[in-house]
Amino acid sequence: MRKAHDCERQGHVFFQTFGGEEICQACALRKPLEAKVERDKAMKQVDDAADDEWKSRADEAIATLANVGIDFIGDDVWEVLDHRGIDRPREMRALGPRIQAAVKHGVIERTGQSRPSVRSHLSDKPVFRGVQ
């Protein structure tokens, strides 16, 4: 049974999900946009909280992998950082914003492939490569 809310009063179209829940089409379309805003906000908070020295070292590790010419995932960046004796940041999610910054600045790009991460219970992670 659908809950009465603003969507119902505004005459929005509802559809039934696979789970049997009824959802407003306008709300369903809005959710991915809201999720992106929330993701970007969280990534900024994590990046702002990370130590500048650590961010610089992470950027160097990403650039190293990009210059070697191999495809890589975040696990590979952590391996480079570990090999160089770089201490872990307070927040392990700090690598994500650094990878996104490297994409934004044209250092690396997504390959469109994914690979399981041993650091994340074998969840698939995007594969990156250096931009030539």
Q: Number of helical runs?
A: 5
Would you tell me which CATH topology of the largest domain applies? Answer: Arc Repressor Mutant, subunit A
Query: From the 3D coordinates, which CATH architecture of the largest domain would you assign?
Result: Orthogonal Bundle
Secondary structure class reads: alpha+beta
Write a structural description:
This protein has 132 residues and is α+β, with helices and mostly antiparallel strands. It folds into two domains: 6-43, no CATH class; 50-130, Arc Repressor Mutant, subunit A, CATH 1.10.10. 50% of the residues lie in helices and 17% in strands. It contains five helices and four strands. The chain has a two-stranded antiparallel ribbon. A two-stranded antiparallel ribbon has the order 3-4. Strand 1 (14-16) and strand 2 (22-24) form a beta hairpin. Helix 2 packs across helix 5 (95-104). The longest helix has 25 residues, at 25-49. The chain is elongated and about 60 Å long. It starts with 5 loop residues before the first helix and ends with a strand. The mean pLDDT is 87.
